[in-house]
## 1
Amino acid sequence: MQTVDASQSNSTASKGGQDIILSARGVTVGFGTKVILNELDLDVRRGEVLGFVGGSGTGKSVLMRAILGLIPRRAGKIRIFGYDLERATEAERLSIDRRWGVLFQQGALFSSLTVKQNIQVPMREHLKLSPRLMDELATLKLELVGLPQDAGDKYPSELSGGMVKRASLARALALDPDLVFLDEPTSGLDPIGAAAFDKLIANLSETLGLTVYMVTHDLDSLHSICDRIAVLGQKKVSAIGPIEEMMVNDDPWIKSYFRGDRALKRV
Ligand SMILES: Nc1ncnc2c1ncn2[C@@H]1O[C@H](COP(=O)(O)OP(=O)(O)OP(=O)(O)O)[C@@H](O)[C@H]1O
Ligand SMILES: [Mg+2]
């Protein structure tokens, strides 16, 4: 049995021991008569970078939102940081909210606020800090995600796509979370920008012991930084494991995703 603590190890293979930071059991989510997720089970290990894949419209974003409590579940249990989300008191819920950060697929930043102000939104919500301290913290977060300091005073519309992603990540990291949810963080970036973003995420995971839950269609990210990959199929997590396991899985969808024409054209 693997018992290595991710924070004490640099080896990718041993990252994410048996300590489960998030577990979903029997999660069912639907809209009207349409069932999107049916009795889904998932465990996320502390310290791992988990990549989440699945066809477009299969429910990856819906699952993320259901975990975050933004979409109601019809059935199932979600435990996060050891708390049962449904039974958490208001104070517990607030403390849970402080321990996770989110980069949404759409509408990542408030367009009427500068980057710095965007990063400070979670701080204002959860902490009582002086404006000066908040400025210092925002400066640190900009540095952490590799943005120049002058980006802090810009509005999202003045940034490139890659910079918006980095600024959104800075906001997700505003409260020094244990876990971040990233919904397609490299979509729309050129391959060099995407590779740089991947490297940033891998570094953060290594140095901060951050657990990363990342929805992605990016095969390069899946190969280069994910410790495990979860596949959403038939309204459930149909497979989960390291990339090596995905490469030999014979499920038709998984096979064509990881070993299809497009995948094999990767150099
Ligand atoms: N608020 C909602 N009301 C009704 N249906 C919804 C709602 N949100 C999502 N859906 C439906 O749930 C299904 C799953 O959507 P979701 O956004 O999770 O897909 P996805 O796997 O993230 O796809 P993509 O890879 O394209 O982002 C889709 O059929 C979508 O139309
Ligand atoms: Mg989505």
## 2
Amino acid sequence: MIQIEADAGKLESNHPALGIHSDAREALADLLEAVEPREDADAADRVRTVLEKVRVRIEAQDLTLEQQVLDAVREALPDAAPSFWDMTILAYWAWSAFDARRPNTMHSAQGAGGLGYAFPAAIGAAAADPTKPVLAVSGDGGAMYSIAELATARQYDLPLTWLIVDDGGYGILREYMTGAFGETTGTELARPDFVALAESFGVPAVRTGPESLAADLSKALAAPGPSVVVLPALLRMFEPTHL
Ligand SMILES: Cc1ncc(C[n+]2csc(CCOP(=O)(O)OP(=O)(O)O)c2C)c(N)n1
Ligand SMILES: [Mg+2]
């Protein structure tokens, strides 16, 4: 096994390997010069077969709402606009299914999993480059970590749209607890009115639904200054893919 890793401390931390301490882009460029091209006539077919298996498995899980919501975000967000995703179920979908053709625009605290990252990070991006719209995506739980920063977004008139998916609680923990113990504890939240909260900061806000999401999000992203789009929805995760 060859492990290419930019963080020296992670080399061989899980498996013995031939460790290469490098940025992946540079190491792969060097490797490309060192290896012979290998013909593999079946590769495209094998990829097709895997993708078909994934499609059939997802279809059996009744997850059209989740895919519809992710499609709507993809449709509304301009290609070059940066997006910042919190620890929320829609983001876990986005990690594997948002859009690989928009390199370096999608940001998430996936490594450490720090809840509350998305909105402050998006504020930073909007302050650094106010010429592009910026999207933040949070759940209702994570949104409460930095709701006061709506004041900052308003004060500096940042071109920032915050999509809050409101399922009334710590949705992913509901799923985990129900799966492990058959019941939940401490997962149901107070469910403030996020539209009224945003408006009280002078930030325009709209409550939307899966059907109107793409249009409402496009409108919010195109408008100058900050805005909030609230989507009341109970999204679910797909089944673990490694089992
Ligand atoms: C700082 C921090 N606190 C707590 C957690 C644990 N945690 C991860 S996801 C989550 C629930 C988030 O709820 P919400 O933002 O509403 O998103 P949902 O799961 O409902 O989509 C919690 C509490 C964490 N990852 N980081
Ligand atoms: Mg939630």
